[in-house]
Structure formats: structure tokens, C-alpha cells
Design brief:
A hairpin with a 2-residue loop joins strand 7 and strand 8. It is built from 12 helices and 11 strands. The chain has 2 domains: 192 residues, Protein Transport Mog1p, Chain A, CATH 3.40.1000; 121 residues, no CATH class. It is α+β, with helices and mostly antiparallel strands. It is 46% helix and 26% strand.
Length: 333
């Protein structure tokens, strides 16, 4: 590996760290507001369905079917949300529940016509299929027991959002497409090389995926070939792709979109103001023309020596692979 590329790779991952997740914990006042909104949405829906069943007895069976369909998809989310809020802020959560449940009779009136009632029942069925206002859906997915345990399933089961870089000058004329879970937040970053940043828990989590594109400073007669990249797929050269204070864990050669690439798993420590962070990373490097495209997953696991309530990259490794596998260069062919 040339010194030029070694230096380039090291600087690239230093840039990653500048935009990694900060040591925030899952519970925040904003999360409490989102939880209250979501709880009110679901309880209001239940209240209206119960009114429909009473006022229109002929619809009682379809009401039960709609309830069952929604509950089978998101009932566990509300149970986990309630359990978590009771644990983190029992007094505030009790007040929130009391206010919401007390307000429902005044806010929701019975559907006067059977046609109107049938329309709402169909809406609930649609909601069970994920057709829910975005912020509420993100909260339900965050607390979905199956996705909480295995985050890759959210993406695999179709709760996803896509990003296309077309028109973004940071992509340096590389038009690409990538998918991430619906419950994550997408935003641009201040770095000139970070095209898009995705963060778990609607932007408040400790898991971050950055997609970067950077020019490789090659001479007129230089190129990076498949053979070149394969030669770099050894522990000694792969260590040059991890940042300062990083520890190489594993890595190797890969292909993505039939392009040669490398993957590297590493641990790294980083200081920010008075906080010492420990992170786990999994980076995928794809070489395309005179560009290096990087999809980098980083997870904060410790802050000032204290373990954060996470299991680290082991829990998110499959999701990271799925996100990388969804990547497509749109102007490749």
C-alpha cells in the first residue's frame, strides 16, 4: 500500500469520529413527549373503536378484527414503551397517562354514521400496515420488541427509508442509493466528505451510520484495481484504515455492486471536552473510479469508563451489513 493511500485512509476515519454519536442516553424529555404523543394516538384509537362497537353493533366483529390486527403489529410496542417509561420516570408517566385518558371522552365523539365508522376501521387496518404519521411510527418501531431485540428485522421487514445522493455536491458526482430503518433520522453533516448521516432512535440514539465520498489523489497513470485492493486485504494493511487510538479487530476483502472493497471492524477511544468515549466501528470501503465510498457504522458503548445500556456492535452487525448491502451506485452502468 502506498504511503499516500495509507495517509488518506487514516485521515478518512478521523473524519468519521468527528461526527460519531455523542454520549446521550435513551431517555430524554423529547422522548417523553414522543412517548406521550404515541400513547395518546393508540389510546385514542382504542377509545374511538370502542365507541363504534357500542353505537354500531353490526360492526362489533370488524372492530375486534381491526383491534387484533393493530395489536398484533404494535401492541408490544406500547407495552414496552409503558414499561420503560414507568421505570425511568414513574411519577411523570403516571401524570401523562392520567391526562391523556381523562381527556379522551371530551375529545372523541361517536361516529354518527355507519359509513364513517367503517372508514375509521379501515384506517386502523391501514395503520397496522405502517400507514401512520412518521413521528408516531418511528416511536412505535423504536419500542417494537422484535426490532428492539434484533434491529436488522425492521429493515428486513420493510420498515425502511431510502436516501439518494443525486444533486448533493458532497457526493462528488457519485449518485448512490441506500436504505436505513424507518425509525432512524437522516440529516446532512458539516463535513465536506460526509454526504449523509443516519442516527438511530429518530436521531437521539448511540448508533450512527455515515456515508462518505472522497477523491483519491491518484496520478495520471495511477488506478486502484481489484488486484490492488485484494493485496490490501491483510491485517497489516487493514490496520492503516483505522484511526489513531483505534484497535483493529477484523477485516477483509469484499465486493459491493461488483466493485472491489474492504471491510474493517475496530474499536476506538476518543476524547471530547471532558468526556472519554469508547466506540465500536464497522466500516465498508468501496473503490469506484478515483473515489472511495465509505459506509461507516459507529456505536458508542462507554462514556467516561461507564458502560452504556447497550450491547454494542454485536447487536447491530447484521443491520450494518443490510444497510451496506442496500447501497447502489446509480450511475455505475
Amino acid at each position: 500500500m502506498t504511503k499516500k493511500v495509507i495517509l488518506f485512509a487514516a485521515l478518512l476515519l478521523v473524519n468519521f469520529l468527528a461526527f460519531a454519536a455523542q454520549p446521550t442516553f435513551m431517555f430524554t424529555d423529547i422522548l417523553l413527549k414522543d412517548a406521550a404523543r404515541t400513547y395518546g394516538f393508540v389510546k385514542g384509537q382504542e377509545f374511538r373503536l370502542n365507541l363504534i362497537a357500542k353505537k354500531h353493533p353490526s360492526l362489533e366483529l370488524t372492530v375486534k378484527q381491526a383491534k387484533l390486527k393493530f395489536s398484533s403489529e404494535f401492541g408490544g410496542s406500547i407495552s414496552l414503551l409503558e414499561s420503560y417509561m414507568k421505570e425511568k420516570t414513574p411519577k411523570k408517566w403516571a401524570e401523562v397517562k392520567s391526562k391523556i385518558e381523562g381527556a379522551l371522552p371530551a375529545l372523541i365523539t361517536p361516529d354518527e354514521t355507519e359509513v364513517g365508522a367503517q372508514g375509521f376501521i379501515q384506517e386502523v387496518i391501514n395503520r397496522a400496515e405502517g400507514k401512520i404519521p412518521s413521528r408516531t411510527l418511528k416511536t412505535l418501531l423504536m419500542f417494537h420488541p422484535r426490532y428492539f431485540k434484533r434491529p436488522e428485522l425492521e429493515l428486513a421487514e420493510g420498515y425502511k427509508q431510502s436516501y439518494t445522493s443525486t444533486g448533493n455536491p458532497k457526493s462528488k458526482d457519485v449518485d448512490f442509493y441506500i436504505e436505513v430503518p424507518e425509525s432512524w433520522d437522516a440529516k446532512s453533516a458539516s463535513s465536506p466528505n460526509v454526504v449523509q448521516q443516519f442516527t438511530s432512535e429518530n436521531g437521539r440514539g448511540l448508533e450512527v451510520v455515515n456515508v462518505l465520498v472522497k477523491d483519491i489523489p491518484l496520478g495520471p497513470d495511477e488506478s486502484i484495481t481489484k488486484t490492488t485492493v485484494e493485496e490490501w486485504a491483510n491485517p497489516q494493511d487493514l490496520k492503516d484504515f483505522i484511526p489513531k487510538r483505534g484497535k483493529f479487530i477484523d477485516g477483509g476483502y469484499m465486493t459491493l455492486e461488483n466493485l472491489p472493497g474492504l471491510w474493517v471492524r475496530y474499536d476506538v477511544s476518543r476524547s471530547r471536552v471532558r468526556t472519554e468515549l469508547e466506540m465500536e466501528g464497522l466500516a465498508y470501503f468501496v473503490f469506484y473510479k478515483n473515489k472511495i465510498i465509505t459506509i461507516n457504522t459507529m456505536i458508542t458503548t462507554h462514556a467516561n469508563g461507564e458502560k452504556i445500556e447497550r450491547v454494542g456492535l454485536d447487536k447491530f452487525e447484521k443491520l450494518s451489513d443490510l444497510i451496506a448491502n442496500s447501497f447502489k451506485v446509480l450511475n455505475l452502468y
